[in-house]
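Prompt: Have a read of the protein record below and flag anything odd:
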Amino acid sequence: MLSMYGRYIRPVKINNKPEKILSNESVQDQIIKRDLYSLLNENSRSKMLMNTTAKVFEWIAVINLSLLILSIFGNLIFSWWTDKETPGYWGIIFLVMFLGGFVGLIGSGTASNLFVKKEYRELSFLVKFWILNFNKEVLFSIQCSVIHKYLNNNSKMDKNYIDYLIAYYTERSDSLRKLRWLPVAIFTAFLFPLWNISLNKLFAASNLSTAIGIILSLILAATIIVWLFRKVIEPIIFYKPIKYLQLATILRTVKTF
């Protein structure tokens, strides 16, 4: 039965197609942000400053030092669980792995320096032969040049716009870094008490010479862990926050051009 109001009800045509609300400026802004991020990845240290020889030596260093860390902690855990001292031959194995990592670092740094001097002669004065320097100044100059060229070609060298990009990348870096630090902090909070208990038990069951050996091993392990974290782990966990912060730093310099 039709409602008495039926004749007054008119069918409404519903348009399910979304309206185009994005302006051309908004799209262009996102394209520029995407391109800047891509340019930074395309001009990374491994692609711009390292030839095959340098990369091979670097992997030799990373593998040897990683194995050294695993071996040290593996032996500490073994001694803790079995109440037995680490066999003497492990000291020789530790030394060999440490020397392998050290040679890898020197080889990688030297090969990279020679490559940079050959490929970027105008920047050769920035090359430093300290093995842990990684020619950061050279890479920074290359990246600044690439970013400046891109912005200039796209007529985006306006200082207000660059300030906006700097603020955007800085904020993105901070927010992502805080978010990704959370699981690391939780893991550390659980691990630290167990680590203290293990060390206390290990030292209590050790004589003076063994305790000194443990302390020296831990100092060496801590140094290598910091290097591996900065070199391998941090770029993986904080890849995007690091890249965003690098872009903000580069843009601050480009703004002065």
Notes: The helical segments are 24-42, 45-48, 52-82, 89-119, 136-153, 159-204, 208-237, 239-254. The radius of gyration is 28 Å. The CA atoms of residues 6 and 12 lie 14 Å apart. The chain has two domains: 47-142, 158-256.
